[in-house]
Design brief:
CATH topology of the largest domain: Immunoglobulin-like
Structural class: mainly beta
Largest sheet: 5 strands, antiparallel
CATH class of the largest domain: Mainly Beta
Number of helices: 4
Number of strands: 25
Helix content: 10-25%
Number of domains: 4
Amino acid sequence: MKREVLKRYATKVLVAVMGISVLTGCQSKDAGTSANPTEQSTDATDEKTQTSHVVTFYDADGKTTLETKDVKDGECVEEYVPEKEGYTFAGWFATPQMSHKFDFSTAITQDTDIFAGFVSYQEDTRTFAIVGSGTSPVLMESNWGAVIGNAQTMVKEDNPDANVYTITLDLESGDEFQFAINSSWNDQRGSGYLSAFSKDGEEYFKNSGSLGDASTKRANIECLISGNYTFTLTTYPGEDTYEEDAADYSEDNKEAFNINAYDTIDWTYNGESESGGEKKQTNYYIKGAKITNWEDVYTDETKFVEKDGIYSLTVELEEGDEFMFTSMVSVGDRESVGTEYIRYTNIAENDSDSLACVTGTDSANLVASKAGSYTFTYDPSTQILTVECK
């Protein structure tokens, strides 16, 4: 009798566990099938009453329906490959703007629209290079694209059917970069083109932002894990478009606003960096509207003085002077503009004394509240800035 009670209890626990699995995962069509006829009957009844959702597959125009499928709640929709004469299928996208691929491992919990990407081959005659800055040798030399040499230039594969560019290089944590065709960063391919930011549950890259109101496509990529990487840029120039709604767009500078819904940046982590380990020195400088006319001025007058890891600078400022702080990085005998900036947001929210001396702009620049002598103190370990004024 006791054995029979335990058996029934174990069966209930098993069914409960299976129920939890159904609720928390994307189930296959065979999920929950049992060899027990009684349980099969129960499952069949549940299937009849289970909520289903409509998944609509659209053409690239976002209007033409290619196919619809009914998918039970919590299950995954099956992928298929459509055909279109004269075009190559480039994958399924989650938005009509083709901003990112649709994840077919995602459980369907509501009516869902998916959009087909089709591309036509056109030879890409452009040359792409990595542009950015940081402490790795290639990006230090790049200096935000000021230098584009053999070390920065991507190699285009000899492929008559596809435009594929590759580059292998060492990166250090904190490096920031994109891929572009020249030092003006035209046709730039940034964070929004990365096929993935993480692998095996570990983040290797992140979107580090961009200047002004640039789109995610043109945002910098920041390296989070030092190592040796291979990047593969695949382009479809026939599908290039332009962000004509951007405030600074014009026909003369339109390549600065060139974007593409189908271009992708894939990457492989090859292992540890071979060039790391050298001592790095970071120095900080003030840069502002009145004090430097927004020019980068690297002199003793604009430079922070370091003592025991804490940096300080005393300068005279006029009321209303808008400014920020930039960085310069030295590794061995190499020197490059750094990726670290000190702004209004580096002041602690509860630091009333510092906040009485400066205000902040929408872009997080600092503004002097009055004319006088200002002393700035910065701790890189906490990234906290304090301000004294008199």
